[in-house]
Structures are given as C-alpha cells and as structure tokens.
Amino acid sequence: MALEKTKDISKLNLLREIIVDPGQSQLRIDKFLVERLLSITRSKIQNACDDGTIRVNDKIIKSNYKIRPNDVIRVYTHFEPPSTEIIPQDIPLDIVYEDDHIMLINKEPGMVVHPGNGNPDGTLVNAVAHHWSKGDEELKRIGLVHRIDKNTSGLLLFGKDEESVLFLGNQFMEKTPKRKYVALVWGDVDEDEGTIDVNIGRDKRFRTKYDVYPDDDEGKTAITHYKVLFRFGYVTLIECVLETGRTHQIRVHMKSIGHTLFNDEVYGGDKILKGTIYTKYKQFVHNAFAICPRQALHAKTLGFIHPHTKEEIHFESELPADMAALIEKWRKYVS
After folding, report:
1. 149 is catalytic
2. Domain boundary residue among 26, 49, 77?
3. Out of 8, 21, 78, 181, which residue is the most buried by the measure of CB atoms under 10 Å away?
4. pTM greater than 0.90 (yes/no)
5. How many structural domains is the chain composed of?
6. Which candidate in 30, 149, 211, 264 is catalytic?
C-alpha cells in the first residue's frame, strides 16, 4: 500500500544522491546507508525503502537489497517545508563568506540553529531567512547543509540553490569536508596527539545524551583526531579534526578518554573535575564557568569543494569572546 503512494516521482523531493564506489563489496542497503546518512537510524532507512523513498537506479527496492558497484542510490523525502513557513527575523549575522551559491556563517554560542519544539523562532535559520528575503525575489529554500549544537560556536555552511545543497550534502555524507574544532577539556591530556576510533550511539538510559559503544555492532562509526595546543595543568586546549560528524561526537569521545569538555553541563564538565581542594582555586574555576557559560567548543575551520567552481576552499573563524577570555584566564592562572 505504501509503495503505491510514492510511485509518482514528481511528488517526491530529492534529498541525497550516492553513486556506489566501483570497489564496493555487496552489502545490504540499510547497512550501507546507516553509515552514510548522518543521524538516520537503520529502522528509518528500512521504512523509507518500504515506502519507496529510497531507490536504486530509479527502481523501488526492499531494505534487504544488496548494493552493487556503480549503483545510483537516491534518497527522497515527502516533506520539503517551503521557506515561507520560516518566519524571517532581523537578527544579526556574522557572515564569513557569501556568493551566489553558498553562504558561510560564524554562529555565536547559545543560538539555536533551526526552529523546533521549544524554539519556534529566534534561530539562525530565521535570521538567514530575513537576510535572503531582502529585495523583490522570492525567498530561497534555507539550504542548511550541516548543524552544530546550540552551545557550540563556529562555522556553518548553507547552500543557496538545490544543486548546491545536493552537492554539499553529498560531501558531508561522504565525510570529505575538512573540519577542525578547538576545545578546552578537563585534565592534562597524556599524549600530544591521538585518534579516538569508537562507535557513538544514543545513551540507553538518557535519550538526549550519547555514549560510546566499543562493540562494532552498536552505534555508528565515529573517528576523532586530536592534538594538544596548550597545557594549563588542570585543563588542556586541544584541536580536533573530524572524520565523521556524529551528534555530540567531540564531547562524547573526549569524555570517553577521561577529558570531558570544560563546562559541558550534559556530560558533567560543569563541575570541578581536576585541581586542588583550596577555596581560592574553587572560586577561580567558578569564575571561569561564568566567563564561558557553555561547553568550551568552537568550530574553527571548514574546508570543502565549492559546488560551482569545483575548487577546494578553506575558511577559518576567530574564537568567540567567551572562549578567548576563558583561555586567557587559564593562561594567567598557570603563569
């Protein structure tokens, strides 16, 4: 019954297109796509196959279909909310770069990215809608390519037309963009650099949190490379490079090796985890919490292939004022 409803391709909107690598071994499509589609569960992929919104070589397939080299997989969606449903709001934006095809924004900490439950407006997307609605032309669809947490600051990429959104989205799905984050973590990190390669999935007790799953049969593949930038004794400033883009990836990975992000309320970093018992030190840390009242994480660098020129481009953003002040406070403390 469900397949009958979606046989008409004109009623669907293309979300992603994947061309299977020539060297790819045969694998069930639901297992293949769960590694490629960020934040999509295997059960949702199976439902999409049953509903006809995932197609291979333009044919409706079942979730047990085994992909073959050079297969063209297209993922569709029934729902494409028009931009007019997003209320344009005059909210200041820190635009790092903009042309006819893309826009890069340096998001401030504390700003929700997209409207949702509890946040119907006042989000970054509402601000982008206002920016793009200037003039007489029709408001473009808000082509958000990826997301970062509300309390994480840094670079966010938007596509300004369907072709650009699809091209950029495929890059993030294939994990090719170059992303670097700067974070302040609790403790003195042992190694100057290292790699955390352990699956991440939803916490089994708290659905709003995530956890690591060393067993490869659980969670999704997640790889984080880290490098020490500066040691402050009780905390360490690090740089993280992502190979994958799982929800809360850096926060969960660093906690898993004993270095929770500074002031990360969700994962316990808003307590004094390292240091002395002296009152003066405790007061210093609480003052530091007040300076940067969120997890100390900033999406600093983003590199990707431009959808129009096909050239690789890189952008960097400055640390926001709260993180810069926090780092300077620790620097003065250890000196």
Report:
1. yes
2. 77
3. 181
4. no
5. 3
6. 149
